[in-house]
Amino acid sequence: MKGTTKTLAVMIFVPVLGCRQAPSEPPPQETLRIYLARHGQTDWNAERRLQGHTDTELNDIGRRQAAELAARLEGITLDAIYSSQLRRSRDTALVVAGEREIESLAELNEQMLGEFEGAYLDGRDQQAVTDFERRSADPNDTMGGGESIDQHLARVESALDQIRGRHPSGQILIVGHGGTNTQILRALLDLSFEESGEISQANSELYLIELSPDRDPRLWKLIPEENLSEL
Asked: For the chain, how far is it from start to end, CA to CA, in angstroms?
């Protein structure tokens, strides 16, 4: 990934879409900045198991990642902090929030993966990997009693409508999930299903989306030092 970079604390701002520089501070008037984080690591993340709606908890690494996220956002005035209703998202947001309130929205929950929840993707069950990859290529596949990708997108869009209705400008944090955050970016950046399939956000990574009425959305990816090999 190429572009102008700027070091802030232990983060590198990498322009991704619609920009070639680090964001200015503070944001322009009538501009909404969305800091988009993924929850910290869980044991199932470490084991490469599909979580979906399974309500897993942060592990020690995940709690450390939540504290690091709080440190990275220190000094940024947030008008609101949103999470899903699943513990791994909510607990990450609570670490960042400190004594501030957060709002947990069910619409931000991870995609329901039906018969694939709990499946291992580390190669021990190659048939499950093959079936999941094949069925994930169809945005209308409900995963055997779960939820299709397009159903998940519609749910996430409902959450974004609520959030943007309350915050036409300012700065907010959303702590979501790998799948949920992909759908957030798909909706806000008007990505195709195929384009959104290229998105992969690590538990320690953070996106910044800037929405202004007079220009196209702009996107930065904030990469921690341990992931600088991606550049």
From this structure: 5
**Strand 170-176 to strand 80-83: parallel, antiparallel, or no bridges (unpaired)?**
parallel
Confidence (pLDDT) at 10: 38
Tell me the C-alpha to C-alpha distance, in Å, between residue 167 and each of 38, 79, 183: 21, 8, 19
The catalytic residues are 39, 110
User: 120 with 48: CB under 8 angstroms?
Assistant: yes
Q: Are 100 and 36 contacting, i.e. CB atoms less than 8 angstroms apart?
A: no
Q: Hey, what amino acid is at 163? A: I
Token code pair at residue 194: 């195929």
CA distance readout (Å), 82 to 86, 124, 217: 12, 36, 20
DSSP string, 148-189: -HHHHHHHHHHHHHHHHHH-SSEEEEEEE-HHHHHHHHHHHT
Q: Are 160 and 166 in contact (CB under 8 A)?
A: no
Q: Calculate mean pLDDT across residues 67-75.
A: 94
Task: Please state which CATH class domain 20-220 belongs to.
Answer: alpha beta
How far is Cα 154 from Cα 147, in angstroms, rounded to an integer? Answer: 11
Mean per-residue pLDDT, 58-68 = 97
Left, alpha or beta for 42 (phi > 0: left; psi -120 to 50: alpha)?
beta
Q: How far apart are CA 131 and CA 55, in angstroms?
A: 23
Full strand arrangement of the beta sheet holding 206-212:
6-8, 11-17, 215-224, 206-212, 32-38, 170-176, 80-83, 103-104
Taking the domains of the chain in order of start, what are their residue ranges?
A: 20-220
Cβ 182 vs Cβ 174: under 8 Å: no
